[in-house]
Amino acid sequence: MEMVLFFIFAGVAVVGALGVVLARQSDHSALFLLLNFVALAAIYVTLNAPFLAAVQVIVYAGAIVVMFLFVVMMLNVAQRERPETKPVQRYVGLVLGVLLLIGLIFVGGSNPQLPPALTRSDNVVNIGEALFAEYLLPFELVGLLLLIGVVGAVVLGKRKLEE
Amino acid sequence: MISSAFYLILSAILFTIGVVGVLTRRNAVVILMCIELMLNSVNLTFVAFSRYLSSMTGQVFVLMTVAVAATEVAVGLGLVIALYRQKQTADIDDVNILRW
After folding, report:
1. What's this model's pTM, rounded to 2 decimal places?
2. CB within 8 Å: B67 and A2
């Protein structure tokens, strides 16, 4: 059962990822990205991480994809992009990608097979304890980083004041 | 319970697709999307190891990564918009003022 679910959602995730790269128009890319995020959220559920699945759907599918779509619609890049990437760039990118994939699968496959761990049911409680006790300082720093990011995005996005 | 290698290989495939996208696409917005693909594949590795090692650390790392990814997209899209205001393009091949 778990195997079947894994292969279904893994297939959907790979299709979504391929769609992002191959889609001609960037709004289609954004929607394929959404498909990929939702499939990964489903895989998180099968991995006994329901809280992260919810975060994945809310933050990635809800916020980030909407932000991408917003910018794509605003810039209307879809019509402006030239139809083809340069052939040289495409072949070199593909060859480098295949080499990387071989390397990564070699490393992942040589990993010692881990025994199945005991599953703990109260996922949210465990994350909360880890986040607010052991990792409190990184948590606060991430909050600071988000604040800096917001200020930076506003500064970059606003129009120049009239001189 | 299936072997951890399946998750690692799926993660490797997704990461590679993201890398190929960054190398071959020219639209800056699509390149940012491919960076998100790569971040997500690493998140999958973290969650899989968190499950197999029965440790919460991986899931906490994923939460941090999600926050960093959201910040990165906000700043990156801000840059794309600023670029569009300057040069009326989102095609990175048209942006070569630092190339000699």
Report:
1. 0.89
2. no
Neighbours of B81 (CB within 10 A): 18
Q: Does B1 touch chain A (CB under 8 A)?
A: yes
> For residue B39, which of B55, B18, B60 has the smallest C-alpha distance?
B18
Grouping H, G, I as helix, E, B as strand and the rest as coil, residue B27 is: strand
* Dihedral sign (CA B44, B68, A70, B12): negative
Tokens representing B18 are 């993201």
Report the residue of chain B nearest A130, measured CA to CA.
B56
| Inter-residue contact A26 to B30 (CB < 8 Å) | yes
B45-100, pLDDT tens digit by residue? 999 988 888 888 889 999 999 999 999 999 999 988 888 888 887 788 888 888 76
* Alpha-helical regions (H) of chain B: 4-24, 28-52, 57-87
A137-151 tens-digit pLDDT: 999 999 999 999 999
d(CA B78, CA B55): 37
- Complex ipTM, two decimals? 0.91
CB–CB contact A77 B63 (8 Å): no
How many CB pairs below 8 Å do chains A and B form together?
A: 231
Q: Which pair of structure tokens corresponds to residue A45?
A: 């559920």
